[in-house]
Amino acid sequence: MNCRSEVLEVTVEARQVEEAMLALLHTILLHRSTGKFHYKKEGTYSIGTVGTQDIDCDFIDFTFVRVSSEELDRVIRKAVSEFKDALSSDGMGQISLEFYQKKKSRWPFSDECIPWEVWSIKVNMVNLANEQERQICREKVGEKLGDKVINVVEVINRHEYLPKMPTQSEVDNVFDTSLKDVQPYLYKITYQITDSLGTSVSTTMRRLIKDTLAL
Amino acid sequence: MAHFETEYQRLEASYSDSPPGEENLLMHVPEGSKSQWHHIENLDLFFQRVYNLHQKNGFTCMLLGEIFELVQLLFVVGFTVFLANCVDYDVLFANKFVNHTDSSKVTLPDAILPMDVCSAHIRDNTFVIFLLIISGVFWLHRLVKFLYNVCCYWEIRSFYINALKMTMSELPYVTWQEVQARIIEIQKEHQICIHKKELTELDIYHRILRFKNYMVAMVNKSLLPVRFRLPALGDSVFYTRGLKYNFELIFFWGPGSLFENEWSLKPEYKRGGNRLELADRLASRILWIGVANLLLCPVILVWQILYAFFSYTEVIKREPGSLGARCWSLYGRCYLRHFNELDHELMSRLSKGYKAASKYMNCFLSPLLTVVAKNVAFFAGSLLAVLIALTIYDEDVLAVEHVLSSITLLGVCITVCRSFIPDKHMVFCPEQLLRVILAHIHYMPDHWQGNAHRYETRDQFSQLFQYKAVFILEELLSPVVTPIILIFCLRRKSLEIIDFFRNFTVEVVGVGDTCSFAQMDVRQHGHPAWMSEGKTEASIYQQAEDGKTELSLMHFAITNPHWQPPRETTHFISQLKERVHREAAGASSDTHPLSLSESEPRSLVANILAGPSTLASVHFACDSSLTNSGVPEMPGGAAALRSLSPISGSLHLRGSLSAAHRASGFTGRTMTGSGTDARTVSSGSSAWEGQLTSLVLSEYASTEMSIHALYMHELHKQQSRGDLSRHTWHRQESDESSDSIPDEVRSEPNARSRHVPRSHTFPTTLTSPGAGSASAASGTAAGRDGAGPQSSSQRRHSGPAADPFGAGAAKVVRTPLVPMGGWAEDGKASSRHQEPLQEETSEDELPPHIQKVT
């Protein structure tokens, strides 16, 4: 567990899930991306530029900044919409954004991916009865997200471990170089869904049997 | 408008859009990752491997060792099968004659069956095939593991060479402390651990010993079912490698264990909410594992027997006495281990105590057995003598049937008998021996002191220090007994186990989930009877027994002088050190030991050091020449040692010990220097290290620890005299042995007990925890304590912030300041915990006595 982990928790309505997730993930990625590296032959490099872009949310009173890279946005959107689909109407879920580093190893083993920072966003879904509540929720979630963003920035501002800037040959071990306009640290988005009931009797039994048979 | 002069010029545009004007661009130089050692994923495993490689003396030794082990395995199986199936025993025993044309001699190859007969034999025997398959699978598993290990340790090897800058050839001669210091050094450069800028010694220890600390804590809190009351054998301990393996499987790494991975407990076990459900789950897992053990029992049993046969028969034949020799039992190792003590530290400590311990156990040879043994040895000896004499006269005697075997058997018989006959010129002093043992093993239940000559004490000590034969026997029985213990004993404890892991797991940044006892925080887990009174806020449930927290803390601080503990802990350590050193100084100024009558109050250390003999004068005299000097006096200490040894005679063990104490005493003094802060101590000792190798330092550290351990025990004894002591040894039942001794000590029929010098400096030999003489003893104790350093009693009254050390000794009756936090905050309403809970709360006004942990 040689990695930092940060947990963010949000409570949103079903239709806000996508935007809230995008807001948080993009905020984190904004700070964890650089411009493309252009290596020179003497072992130096220059960094390309990164544009930013304000995005207004439809269902939340909130505007966030993201890297203006359509490609990155597409990737994130895809992950988030998968997560949203998997999330049932009032369930809990967790989406995590993991930054990792690759370590080349010798032949019989595949490359190791060693995470150095994990952001877990826990989502609590609520159902709202009427329009008035929705209106209140819209504002409240906006405020909450604002807090979270400040939170994220605070964490990122701390002087903590970051992978060292790689040489040209190693750039793939640290940065995701597949995008053509921006270069974030290598990341992985995973999610898991938990029932709001958590461990009901039947699941416990099932798990118990599975556990015990897994000898 | 021919020529319009202007400042403005057309820009010499270079329309290459990206990047414009390369020369003006900000250029960066990549640092690259020069080493591959930054940010290691599984630091637990990494540090463990680093430690293992160090302990195994480098890569080559380890590789060879493992290869031989694999070969040995093949050999054991192959040879057994061969012996069972391919040997014609009739030929060997000459029941069947072999027709030889050329000579009449029977050769070994004659007895071996030809290949085809042999393989037919094997094919017919399903049991052998079954055995072969099992061992084949096992061997393959080992092989895969071996190959994997080779790859992993190759990496560690390059870590040693490239990062730590140590070659494999010098590794056996480098101490672990040095390796550790290097690791801490390179953390600054490579950031192995990303959470912190700097690693501490404690972090490394925590990671290497994470699970061992849990086991030590569980044994300390009597959570594991390893003690049993058997109808015939009385109290006994059963803890074998197989059982230990199963415990670890269940708790730490088996499928569905409490731990998610090496470093974190599963989150559901950290919450108290559904503890009952979790306990049920754990219970059913234990049941399954128990059943699996039962099913595999024949396989394991056969394996154990084979293994024992091949590894021990040769030893027994060579020196039959070795079965009578003793070893520290597995339980003993767990009981005696400090928190955060690495294997090699424990082993060296126990090995130092080995001689004294076996001497102590030999005090208790049964006189009846001695008489019998003497006579058996006499008869066997005479027979043997005749046979040998005959053989010398004419060696044809050897050819007579069974002569050779009877010579061998008689020899074995005599050796066994001799081990029951005590040495005539040996004088035994169990009380002193036990003290010497204590100096090394550091832990001992309270009621042993003063009862060293009792058979009960011996029996209990033998649980820690058992016969090797018993050890082997237990290992052989283990496959049968283990499932029974798992199914019937451990399963009942599942709720307590769940509670234990929840209550005593803390998450430390950069380390993960560790056992909170291993933090060695006196405030959280200190025991008021062990010098942490007033500092500890622990409830009885949270206190570590036997002063484990305090002793572990001292041990760790002494073995790792560079470690900077948290502030309160620093305070505790420095206070204790200062006290010990001051008293040591006080003791040394006491030049004429003969003037020390019982009425004269004396300091504790003098008490410990002086002993009953006049030896004291010798080493105090030596000491006075040593006191004001620094490191160059090292040979002086050695001289003291030498000067002691010829005089001491039968007491030389003790003498050398106290000489060692002197040495450690002045070690300490040079270390403390002027300041009392532990920081100055550590800086002082680092100056020290410059002159001496760290090996020497660690040697002195162990003697320093010995003196601290003795001191703490002494203080504890005085402190708890007024109270009913709280036994951890047999918490299930009250200890009858210690109550009934007071005065029949003198009238004891055992002749040897008269040899015990009952010095006045050891009040314990005269008194006992029993009520009768307690008040007088504590009176003298109080006097003694008060006169030592300008002492505690006044300061105690002055306020709670004052020095709490040994303060209790000044009062005969005291009410302990034990915060009764109950067992845990949440959900303790379960029926299983009802009993202890009530007991705890009812103890509010009383001094803590025998704690019941059902």
Word description of this protein:
Chain A: Belongs to the ATG101 family. Chain A: This is Autophagy-related protein 101. Chain A: InterPro entries: ATG101. The complex is a heterodimer of chains A (215) and B (854). By secondary structure, chain A is α+β, with helices and mostly antiparallel strands. Chain A has a single domain, classed as Cell Cycle, Spindle Assembly Checkpoint Protein, Chain A. Chain A contains five helices and ten strands. In chain A, the strands form four sheets. Chain A has a four-stranded mixed β-sheet. A two-stranded antiparallel sheet of chain A has the order 2-9. Chain A has a two-stranded antiparallel sheet with strand order 3-4. In chain A, strand 7 and strand 8 form a beta hairpin. In chain A, helix 1 packs across helix 2 and helix 1 packs parallel to helix 3. Chain B is mainly alpha-helical and 854 residues long. Chain B has 35 helices and six strands. A two-stranded antiparallel ribbon of chain B has the order 1-2. A two-stranded antiparallel ribbon of chain B has the order 3-4. In chain B, strand 5 and strand 6 form a beta hairpin. The C terminus of chain B is likely disordered. The interface between A and B is large, with 37 and 40 residues.
Strand and helix map with partners:
The complex is a heterodimer of chains A (215) and B (854).
Chain A lengths: L3 E10 L3 H15 L1 E2 L2 E3 L5 E3 L4 E5 L6 E5 L2 H17 L5 E12 L8 E15 L4 H27 L13 H4 L8 E2 L2 E8 L6 H13 L2
Parallel strand pairs in A: 1-8
Antiparallel strand pairs in A: 2-9, 3-4, 5-6, 7-8, 7-10
Helix pairs in contact in A: 1-2, 1-3
Chain B lengths: L42 H13 L3 H27 L3 H4 L15 H4 L3 H10 L1 H38 L12 H15 L10 H8 L1 H11 L6 E4 L3 E4 L3 H13 L13 H4 L4 H44 L2 H4 L1 E3 L1 H7 L6 H20 L4 H27 L9 H18 L9 H12 L13 H10 E3 H23 L3 H10 L1 E4 L3 E4 L6 H4 L2 H5 L15 H12 L7 H23 L14 H7 L4 H12 L7 H15 L3 H21 L5 H14 L2 H26 L43 H4 L7 H14 L4 H7 L32 H12 L12
Antiparallel strand pairs in B: 1-2, 3-4, 5-6
